[in-house]
Amino acid sequence: MTTLVAPNSLPVRNPADNHLLATLAVDDATEVAAAAAHLRRAQTEWSESGPRARADWLRRWRTWILDHTDELTDLLRAETGKVRPDAVVETIASCEFISHYADHAAKYLAAESVKPAGPLSLPKRLYTRYSPYPLVGIITPWNFPITLFLMDAAPALAAGCAVLAKPSEETPLACGRLIDGWKEIGAPPVLTQVVGRGDTGAAVVEAADFVQFTGSTATGRRIGMRCAELLKPYSLELGGKDAAIVLDDADLDRAVNGITWGGLFNSGQVCISVERVYVAAPVYDEFVHRLTAKVRSLSQGTADGDDVGAMVTANQVDIADRHVTDAIACGARVLVGGTRSITGNFFAPTVLVDVDHTMACMTEETFGPTIPVMKVADEDEAVSLANDCDYALSATVWTRDHARGQRVAARLEAGAVNVNDVFSNLFATTLPHNGWKQSGVGARLGGAYGLRKYCRVQAVTVPRIPTLRSELTWYPYSPRRTAVTRWVLRAVASRGVAARLGLRGTGPR
Ligand code: NAD
User: Ligand 1, closest atom to CA 219?
Assistant: First the structure.
């Protein structure tokens, strides 16, 4: 039975049992513009309050989040169908983004002196300063409603921006409650949420000065095109098809445990989840044997003690189902799982073998709890197949030899590589999180970078010596002044003067 939903209302359901959790009003373009105007009014004072005052508010917000962990976790579980351990990790670990940017904003935002590159700039003091974009729009998907919002909201707020959040239409509740928390602690009105589908997101793109988008490559491309028309800066964190490479010297127990968790955590709905596995021939049989046993031992459901929860949308279950059905039709075998539930959005944790790159399960993003495993002759074949992909978000390499792991990492086309681990780059706030190829444009986090991306850089020059009434190159022009200017510029261009002043080779720091 199809339920008709009014375009101006948004029902939010529990994907595990379809239970209606809330019906929210959709914000249209006029309401988005009004919210943006309200935020802009508050942003000037927020920006002028300085990084230390803003860090105080961020830390109070963190305390509020930690005081409300259970409530947020329950809300998250209800709207996503996550199992409790997955939801708890998301709620608490995400505070790391607040901590890092509260602790380092003053340092990251400090003006920086720049050395003159040549004699023309010698009479000036040069420096750069960071000026926040007044309004940052943060558009997020449904797989990590708290983490993917805080990863960008924390640095943007710390930078002095106002933030207009547009969570996924599937999961607006936990993010909304988090933003309630900002209001409950009495923080300045520089953070709010608008609710709705793609139209509301498109209105956020129009309203914001900088667009931070996390979601599918298809939507990211549309947003990038619109931002190009508007000449508006943006950053896109998009889809992935992350490869795991198990080399012949891998610790198989660790590889199996890591790949199982990396492929099935959050029901495989992680942009950097393990989506395909290449195993060196000498260890292939043993790896597959242990992986199958491990996956078979897991329980599915959303009760306490279950390992793998629901998927957020029925559409995502359809995609997992299509990839498995297509693989079987092309000759693959299912060793465990392979089926969808009759009620609720569940797809059984699945191991597929005898797969290859003619199959969608090895080339398209599945975003579900499936682990397709392919036998490869050696390291070279594994690297070549891993790189044979339009996506390039992250990858994992499993080997006892860390030097070998790093050599393989350097050959992989991926924005991040974890050796003998999964997801460990994610909460490493000082590492950049960026997708190569069709997995993204720009980056997030990466220490100072993650905050400075929300700022415009201003170049400032100030005289170092008393200034004259006029300069040689200013009006009025005359043949004599032109001749002197020519002589000076030639000396500078040939670096004759620079060499004498010991400036040769200096450049901006
Ligand atoms: P999606 O692209 O369908 O939607 C994401 C958000 O964009 C939602 O809030 C949606 O309402 C909004 N939106 C839709 N159309 C829009 C438009 N025209 N203008 C502005 N906003 C619009 O993605 P999804 O299905 O919610 O999420 C799953 C995808 O997200 C997967 O591809 C996954 O790999 C990706 N993802 C990437 C990362 C990363 O960091 N690279 C992290 C998590 C998820």
Answer: 2
